[in-house]
Specification:
This protein is mainly α. The protein has one domain. It has helices at residues 3-9, 23-43, 52-64, 67-84, 91-107, 115-139, 149-171. Helix 2 (23-43) packs antiparallel against helix 3 (52-64) and helix 5 (91-107) runs antiparallel to helix 6. The longest helix has 25 residues, at 115-139. The two termini are 28 Å apart.
């Protein structure tokens, strides 16, 4: 690619900037997100559209910039979510593994510190997540699930709106660059 295209796309010249986090940062935010996902909709049903474990998965995968690390992060968050929820074990794990892998792969090419790009990626990965949950539920588990496209688009937008400030809060968990 030309230098002008690299500047327009926000490609990092030379090396990619891998963010480092303390081990606690990999445990506490995903756990809080999963607990939010499970318990808050019981008391405030209007917040059931939020998919905070997905947003945390996307954030850590984008910041690590390593596809294997993104897949592992997604797998662990998804399996923990499955273990604590009513989903069949592995449904969220498989989908979040794919999300983590693809988010980390995209972050290797683009500067994901940009808030607008984070918004777009959060929107895209929510739609991706819902589509693959639907495919997996119908194809592998034989569940009768409906994919409601207008509702999914609206929820994707709302999750992307929540992702922007959430990612800024999670940015504060970064440790010193190595």
């Amino acid at each position: 690619m030309s230098e002008l295209n690299d500047k327009l796309l926000g490609v990092l010249p030379g090396k990619s900037k891998i963010s480092r986090f303390r081990p606690v940062a990999y445990i506490v935010p995903p756990l809080l997100a999963i607990l939010f996902q499970i318990y808050v909709p019981r008391f405030a049903s209007y917040l059931s559209y939020l998919e905070l474990p997905l947003l945390v998965t996307v954030y850590f995968a984008l910041m690590r910039r390593q596809p294997v690390a993104g897949a592992v992060i997604g797998c662990l968050i998804g399996l923990a979510q499955d273990a604590l929820s009513q989903h069949p074990l592995g449904m969220q794990g498989i989908v979040k593994t794919l999300v983590g892998y693809f988010a980390a792969s995209i972050s290797m090419r683009f500067d994901v510190e940009n808030v607008a790009l984070r918004f777009i990626l959060s929107f895209f990965f929510f739609v991706f997540h819902q589509l693959f949950l639907w495919v997996q539920g119908r194809g592998l588990h034989g569940m009768s699930m409906d994919l409601q496209a207008p509702q999914t688009i609206i929820f994707a937008f709302l999750n992307a709106v929540v992702a922007a400030p959430l990612f800024l809060v999670l940015d504060r968990l970064k440790s010193e660059e190595l």
